Amino acid sequence: MKKLFIIACLAMTMVVGAQAQKFALVDMEYIMGNIPAYEQANEQLNQTSKKWQAEVEALENEAKTLYKNYQDEATFLSAEQKKAREQAIVSKEKEASDLKKKYFGPEGELYKKRVALIEPIQTEIYNAVKSIATAKNFQLILDRSSDNGIIFASPSIDISREVLQKLGYNVR
């Protein structure tokens, strides 16, 4: 009797474990490319980045000019003048480096701006994907655009268009 009960329990476990797992794919590049707000945010980030890069390059060019002038005039300068010029060059280089770090560092202004502009869009997409996954009982959804490990995937399991429709965008 005990053996029969154990065999029945094992059989039930195998049946439950053997149920088909449902999964789907999304293409985040495709989804993002079809959301105008994402494209606008990217353009705004690019413009800001170019502007800040120009500021940093201007400071770097000032430092290079100071250094070139120093090299040209070094033979005519006293020790005190040399030291003052060297300090000015180092100060200008540090100013450029600090500005670059402020704008483009790991916790810099560009990162903060990217989070502020892009994160709400990503959250909206995540919520749409989660909603579809819950409604259709998907256990796993993979991003086909970021995973080089996917060699082939049937277009029938790609829910990218459905995600865009859920977000209210026309699908191309």
From TrEMBL:
Residues annotated as coiled-coil are: 35-102
Keyword Coiled coil annotated: yes
Has the keyword Ribosomal protein been applied to this entry?
A: no
GO annotation, biological process:
protein stabilization
A GO molecular function for this record? Answer: unfolded protein binding
Q: Mention any Pfam family matching this sequence.
A: OmpH
Taxonomic superkingdom: Bacteria
Signal peptide (residue range): 1-20
User: Listed GO cellular component terms?
Assistant: cytosol
Instruction: Give the keywords, sorted.
Output: Coiled coil, Signal
Protein family (similarity comment): Belongs to the Skp family.
PANTHER family xrefs: CHAPERONE PROTEIN SKP (PTHR35089:SF1)
Q: What is this protein called?
A: OmpH family outer membrane protein
Tell me which species this is from. Pseudoprevotella muciniphila
